[in-house]
Amino acid sequence: MLWTDLMMGLNRLRGLGPPATLWRLCLQCSPAVAMLDRVPSALGVPPLGLVALRLSRGIHGRGDQTNHAAGNRVPCRFPFSRVSKQDLAFFENLLPGRTIVDPDVLMTHNVDWMKSVRGSSELLLRPQTTEEVSKILKYCCERRLAVNPQGGNTGLVGGSVPVYDEIILSTSLMNQILSFDQVSGIITCQAGCVLENLSNYLEERDFIMPLDLGAKGSCQIGGNVATNAGGLRLLRYGSLRGTVLGLEVVLASGKILNFLTALRKDNTGYDLKQLFIGSEGTLGIITAVSILCPRRPRAVNVAFLGCSSYKKLLETFQCCRGMLGEILSAFEFLDSACMKLLEKHLKLINPIAENSFYIVIETAGSNADHDKEKLHNFLEAVMASFLVTDGTVATEDAKIKALWSIRERVTEALTHDGYTYKYDISLPLEKIYQLVEDMREYLGDKAKNVVGYGHVGDGNLHLNITSHSKDQALQEAIEPYVYEWTARYRGSISAEHGLGLKKRNYIHFSKHPEAVALMKDIKHMLDPHRILNPYKTLPDQG
Ligand SMILES: O=C(O)CC[C@@H](O)C(=O)O
Ligand SMILES: [Zn+2]
């Protein structure tokens, strides 16, 4: 079979919808506001200092009940100070026009994009420079004011919004690219740069970001690094722990740590920047990063394939690694339950015949003919051996985007299905789908849908469960069952999303008590007054 025959045979794309833009819309606009409008106002007694400044329509209050009201188990508020008139005067002097108390603006910053966690902050600060962040933290540390660092607010574990009245420190205005070296491919930029803007900037210069996520239109690089986000290209380019070469971080005391080196190799003592990667803003606020970027591949192909069983999917993966080798850049999957939700809620069209599992394979290389030949041989092999029953291939940009959007928009489709319980699990590859099947059987008709998708190439399953509305009994049935199951196979209960507020108390399923104790010591050393992103990452006890 020739490449063209194969393409014609496989290509049965039937007018797929546009790429994932709705995600971006959801994050930036009204749904969060609409939900908050249903929250009863005057949730508590407002702090005296702010009464005079408050607009009459505010839902603001002490807010100690907001997360409790939403059914989130949160610890009691730590004895932080409350923002006073004097504090406000200090911030207004430091950040004129960027010290925000407008309740309408604060609403969107107080709630996560899934609308599952809600804080009651009354103050949003928008620094533009590292020095401003340093002055804010020094002041907050002295005054014992808690601070919630916030990037694009696209996190999935409640780590990016306040729990009570923490001051929100947004990095959105820290969005400058500081330098880019064409030879080494190292970009240095401020933390608030939106991932997609960085990608566009680099693509114009024939490079790409080593990281790609469904939330790229809103998420910011500082937040990506703070959560050690994985995404769709990790299989090829590795995690941010490898591609981040340098960081600039402001500690709780206001001290600025400048590790903004651009060296590939540096074994001079402990690699301190690693402490901040994945620490979810609990140890310091990342203000700038330098990242090693790969060259933009000259040829990109995407194959969307169907498999009748998970076993066959894994065999396809093995074959794929062997035959595609260095040009393989992604191997992702979704199950048929995900496909049904995409069809039902987003009206996406399945481009191939119905199957139990769907795979998205991407190749990225420097020689189109060479890559085509390899992909052709691989597709021929998996079809001849009946590992794959149907498929389609895209080489043009628009079709590549359309195929990718099927995988990228699963999260969005789930949000339309009801309340979503999200689990982000690392497991040995052969166990990944067994968890979904066991969970389906175990929950029976208690759940509306139990679906599995994720990054097969990285051993990372996204197990998502939906119910008509938030159901405490269902959550208690799922947890700790899902974590015990994961621990039995020595998996991780958070592969790439972090622990945030929602998963902090389950850390023991993946980490020994000694490790957790050491984490607490490190936290105490770097942030003795616990002002940075309190109630997140570390467990309440133990
Ligand atoms: O929504 C989720 O559970 C996963 C989101 C993201 O990590 C993805 O891989 O699509
Ligand atoms: Zn993911």
Structural summary, described in words:
It contains 22 helices and 16 strands. The chain is an alpha+beta fold. It folds into four domains: 3-25 and 297-411, Alpha-Beta Plaits; 26-170, Uridine Diphospho-n-acetylenolpyruvylglucosamine Reductase, domain 2 (2-Layer Sandwich), CATH 3.30.43; 177-292, Uridine Diphospho-n-acetylenolpyruvylglucosamine Reductase, domain 3; 417-510, Alpha-Beta Plaits, CATH 3.30.70.2740. Residues 1-65 have low confidence and may be disordered. The strands form three sheets. It has a seven-stranded antiparallel sheet with strand order 13-10-12-11-15-16-14, with helices on both faces. A five-stranded antiparallel sheet has the order 5-6-9-7-8. Strands 1-2-4-3 form a four-stranded mixed sheet. It has helices spanning 3-10, 22-28, 31-37, 48-51, 66-69, 85-94, 103-110, 130-143, 195-204, 221-227, 234-237, 240-243, 273-276, 310-324, 336-346, 368-384, 397-408, 410-415, 432-443, 472-478, 481-488, 513-526; strands at residues 99-100, 124-125, 147-150, 167-170, 177-181, 186-190, 244-250, 256-259, 285-292, 299-307, 328-335, 357-365, 390-394, 419-426, 449-455, 460-467. The longest helix has 17 residues, at 368-384. The chain binds (2R)-2-hydroxypentanedioic acid (2HG) and zinc ion. Residues 230, 454-455, 462, 496 line the site of zinc ion (ZN). It is an enzyme of class 1 (oxidoreductase). It comes from Scleropages formosus. It catalyses: (R)-malate + A = oxaloacetate + AH2. InterPro entries: FAD-bd_oxidored_4_C, FAD-bd_PCMH, FAD-bd_PCMH-like_sf, FAD-bd_PCMH_sub1, FAD-bd_PCMH_sub2, FAD-linked_Oxase-like_C, FAD-oxidored/transferase_4, Oxid_FAD_bind_N.
